[in-house]
């Protein structure tokens, strides 16, 4: 919807060239991780069908066997994703020969290896043979990674210094240090926060930063990792063959991340067996809290939950609100609550108990003592009072306008309030059949935004100069099918799309 | 062969669009293509500046009231 960039793994992967994919798919763990994380169910069915097929499959056969006639759109999306990730090849349509599809060679071989085992690829990590310190167990790793990650979140949230006394009260985990300078630079480079000399702390959150805060933690980790990959790509370009040791190969980096995702939580792995590129990544990964390296024994590394859940399905992960719950529990020193993070289910249960009450008179009551959540609320609320375990405030035109001036959208605010509504609000809403948030408040937030945001922006590409009306019609139809069409005008023969890569390929295949 | 031009698509009311067109008329460095009465293609690096200028222009003419005066806060 908006013109700002979002860092998602799928966007990053789609921009990579085919040669990069060929190299990536040499690693069974990478092929398997992409299969697990990136594909919708129907695309997975296709891959499984094709995996052991000795010869290419006719595209028409695919439709006969696996696709219902009403599932045409899903089939097109699935195929579009498989092609953009270079998992399948489809021969161009010609009059003399029907279209055929097959898996790309490297993907097929690696996927088979991943399923059957075997090979000497060391793709799924090498366990350390050295004795392991018994104090490094799963609860320890969870606590460690949570602290590291919350330091980063706190840094982003604390960049909002509107209510220094209420909101920016520092971090609860007793961490004075915050994230490392390299992590701070990364957040700045990724425009999650921006330098603004007029604010108290010198930096402020951006729309991307707010989106980042509201993502579930798995998406947050990927956002940061992709920023990191990009930053090291830039560094490589800038230094241009300088000190070879410091230059990291982004393909190997990405493979390593996928490998981390396949490791077992609580086990020690051997750093000696890693390539130099990967060993150079370790300090940064320690800063992000993805791995733990014992000080006495730097030849071992332990993946944390942040790393091992990188490629699992999103629903299995704790979200930022569960993080709030954990942060609160942590602050109160409740040892038993450490388990709240270990079990994603119980964390989800904690999340479903929201804490915010919104009244029709724009008053807000939040039953929380988490500095993180209070700071997020302070982004768009005029907070008035803070009690033990509760804050009160009001949504005002100025508070919403200020939030919007940071680049936060009305929809983000509304969905945040709805997602964190107190269970009493949900109960009343269910009983009376009304929406959770008071409609007057929701409408007013949108109106306040309209005052400010008089235009909607979308980044993308304008297509023009078509050879025939038929070509225009075919291209717009295809763009609509794959979900990138934003605007079109038949009279002027113009259309606008959010991405062009697949349209370019489509054009090429038509030309043949 | 069709051509593709990168840029930011702006969707807005005709009134706002006419202000943008006016802003552009000074140095012609904002708009790439005037698409129709509610759409414009603009240079990506100008969007931030455009928003600022638009905000300034609207401030001169438009001042809505707070919907509800607060008694106690």
UniProtKB/TrEMBL annotation, chain A:
<keyword id="KW-0805">Transcription regulation</keyword>
<keyword id="KW-0539">Nucleus</keyword>
<dbReference type="GO" id="GO:0003690">
    <property type="term" value="F:double-stranded DNA binding"/>
</dbReference>
<comment type="function">
    <text>Component of the general transcription and DNA repair factor IIH (TFIIH) core complex which is involved in general and transcription-coupled nucleotide excision repair (NER) of damaged DNA.</text>
</comment>
<dbReference type="GO" id="GO:0005675">
    <property type="term" value="C:transcription factor TFIIH holo complex"/>
</dbReference>
<dbReference type="GO" id="GO:0001671">
    <property type="term" value="F:ATPase activator activity"/>
</dbReference>
<dbReference type="Pfam" id="PF18307">
    <property type="entry name" value="Tfb2_C"/>
</dbReference>
<comment type="function">
    <text>Component of the general transcription and DNA repair factor IIH (TFIIH) core complex, which is involved in general and transcription-coupled nucleotide excision repair (NER) of damaged DNA and, when complexed to TFIIK, in RNA transcription by RNA polymerase II. In NER, TFIIH acts by opening DNA around the lesion to allow the excision of the damaged oligonucleotide and its replacement by a new DNA fragment. In transcription, TFIIH has an essential role in transcription initiation.</text>
</comment>
<comment type="similarity">
    <text>Belongs to the TFB2 family.</text>
</comment>
<feature type="domain" description="Transcription factor Tfb2 C-terminal">
    <location>
        <begin position="443"/>
        <end position="508"/>
    </location>
</feature>
<keyword id="KW-0227">DNA damage</keyword>
<keyword id="KW-0804">Transcription</keyword>
<keyword id="KW-0234">DNA repair</keyword>
<dbReference type="Pfam" id="PF03849">
    <property type="entry name" value="Tfb2"/>
</dbReference>
<dbReference type="InterPro" id="IPR004598">
    <property type="entry name" value="TFIIH_p52/Tfb2"/>
</dbReference>
<dbReference type="GO" id="GO:0006289">
    <property type="term" value="P:nucleotide-excision repair"/>
</dbReference>
<protein>
    <recommendedName>
        <fullName>RNA polymerase II transcription factor B subunit 2</fullName>
    </recommendedName>
</protein>
<dbReference type="GO" id="GO:0006366">
    <property type="term" value="P:transcription by RNA polymerase II"/>
</dbReference>
<dbReference type="InterPro" id="IPR040662">
    <property type="entry name" value="Tfb2_C"/>
</dbReference>
<dbReference type="GO" id="GO:0000439">
    <property type="term" value="C:transcription factor TFIIH core complex"/>
</dbReference>
Automatic annotation (TrEMBL), chain B:
<dbReference type="GO" id="GO:0000439">
    <property type="term" value="C:transcription factor TFIIH core complex"/>
</dbReference>
<dbReference type="GO" id="GO:0006367">
    <property type="term" value="P:transcription initiation at RNA polymerase II promoter"/>
</dbReference>
<comment type="similarity">
    <text>Belongs to the TFB5 family.</text>
</comment>
<protein>
    <recommendedName>
        <fullName>General transcription and DNA repair factor IIH subunit TFB5</fullName>
    </recommendedName>
</protein>
<keyword id="KW-0539">Nucleus</keyword>
<comment type="function">
    <text>Component of the general transcription and DNA repair factor IIH (TFIIH) core complex, which is involved in general and transcription-coupled nucleotide excision repair (NER) of damaged DNA and, when complexed to TFIIK, in RNA transcription by RNA polymerase II. In NER, TFIIH acts by opening DNA around the lesion to allow the excision of the damaged oligonucleotide and its replacement by a new DNA fragment. In transcription, TFIIH has an essential role in transcription initiation.</text>
</comment>
<dbReference type="Pfam" id="PF06331">
    <property type="entry name" value="Tfb5"/>
</dbReference>
<keyword id="KW-0227">DNA damage</keyword>
<comment type="subunit">
    <text>Component of the 7-subunit TFIIH core complex.</text>
</comment>
<keyword id="KW-0234">DNA repair</keyword>
<dbReference type="GO" id="GO:0005675">
    <property type="term" value="C:transcription factor TFIIH holo complex"/>
</dbReference>
<keyword id="KW-0804">Transcription</keyword>
<dbReference type="InterPro" id="IPR035935">
    <property type="entry name" value="TFB5-like_sf"/>
</dbReference>
<comment type="function">
    <text>In NER, TFIIH acts by opening DNA around the lesion to allow the excision of the damaged oligonucleotide and its replacement by a new DNA fragment. In transcription, TFIIH has an essential role in transcription initiation. When the pre-initiation complex (PIC) has been established, TFIIH is required for promoter opening and promoter escape.</text>
</comment>
<keyword id="KW-0805">Transcription regulation</keyword>
<dbReference type="GO" id="GO:0006294">
    <property type="term" value="P:nucleotide-excision repair, preincision complex assembly"/>
</dbReference>
<dbReference type="InterPro" id="IPR009400">
    <property type="entry name" value="TFIIH_TTDA/Tfb5"/>
</dbReference>
């Amino acid at each position: 919807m908006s013109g700002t960039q979002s860092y998602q793994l799928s966007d990053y992967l789609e921009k990579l060239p085919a040669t990069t994919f060929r190299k990536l798919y040499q690693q069974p763990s990478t092929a398997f991780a992409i299969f697990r994380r990136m594909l919708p169910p129907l695309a997975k069915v296709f891959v499984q069908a094709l995996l052991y097929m000795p010869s290419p499959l006719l595209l028409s056969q695919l439709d006969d066997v696996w696709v219902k006639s009403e599932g045409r759109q899903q089939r097109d999306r699935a195929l579009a994703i498989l092609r953009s990730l270079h998992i399948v090849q489809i021969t161009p349509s010609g009059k003399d020969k029907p279209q055929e599809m097959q898996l790309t060679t490297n993907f097929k071989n690696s996927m088979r290896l991943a399923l059957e085992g075997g090979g000497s690829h060391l793709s799924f990590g090498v366990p350390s043979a050295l004795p392991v310190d018994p104090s490094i167990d799963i609860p320890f790793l969870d606590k460690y990674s949570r602290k590291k990650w919350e330091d980063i979140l706190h840094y982003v949230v604390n960049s909002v210094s509107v209510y220094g006394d209420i909101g920016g009260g520092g971090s609860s985990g007793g961490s004075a240090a915050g994230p490392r300078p390299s992590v701070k630079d990364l957040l700045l480079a990724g425009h999650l926060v921006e330098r603004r000399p007029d604010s108290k702390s010198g930096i402020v959150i951006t729309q991307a930063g707010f989106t980042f805060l509201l993502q579930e933690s798995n998406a947050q980790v990927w956002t940061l990792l992709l920023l990191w990959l990009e930053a090291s790509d830039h560094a490589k370009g800038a230094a241009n063959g300088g000190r070879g040791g410091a230059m990291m190969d982004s393909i190997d980096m990405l493979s390593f991340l996928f490998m981390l995702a396949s490791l077992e939580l609580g086990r020690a792995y051997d750093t000696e067996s890693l390539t130099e590129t990967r060993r150079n990544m370790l300090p940064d990964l320690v800063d992000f809290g993805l791995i733990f390296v014992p000080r006495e024994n730097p030849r071992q590394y332990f993946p944390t939950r942040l790393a091992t859940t990188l490629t699992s399905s999103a629903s299995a992960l704790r979200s930022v609100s569960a993080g709030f719950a954990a942060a609160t529990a942590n602050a109160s020193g409740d040892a038993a609550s450490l388990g709240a993070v270990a079990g994603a289910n119980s964390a989800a249960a904690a999340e479903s108990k929201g804490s915010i009450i919104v009244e029709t008179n724009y008053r807000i009551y939040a039953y929380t003592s988490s500095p993180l959540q209070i700071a997020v609320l302070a982004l768009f609320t005029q907070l008035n009072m803070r009690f033990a375990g509760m804050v009160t405030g009001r949504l005002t035109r100025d508070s919403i306008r200020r939030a919007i001036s940071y680049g936060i959208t009305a929809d983000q605010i509304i969905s945040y309030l709805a997602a964190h509504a107190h269970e009493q609000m949900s109960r009343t809403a269910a009983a009376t059949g009304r929406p959770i948030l008071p409609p007057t408040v929701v409408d007013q937030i949108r109106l306040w935004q309209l005052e400010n945001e008089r235009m909607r922006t979308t980044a993308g590409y304008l297509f023009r100069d078509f050879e025939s009306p038929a070509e225009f019609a075919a291209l717009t139809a295809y763009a609509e099918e794959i979900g990138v069409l934003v605007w079109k005008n038949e009279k002027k023969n113009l259309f606008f799309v959010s991405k062009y890569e697949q349209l370019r390929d489509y054009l090429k295949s038509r030309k043949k | 062969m069709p051509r593709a031009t990168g840029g930011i698509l702006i969707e807005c009311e005709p009134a706002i669009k006419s202000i943008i067109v006016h802003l552009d008329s000074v140095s012609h460095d904002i708009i790439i293509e005037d698409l129709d009465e509610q759409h414009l293609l603009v240079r990506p690096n100008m969007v931030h500046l455009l928003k600022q200028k638009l905000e300034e222009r609207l401030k001169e003419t438009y001042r809505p009231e707070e919907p509800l005066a607060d008694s106690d806060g």
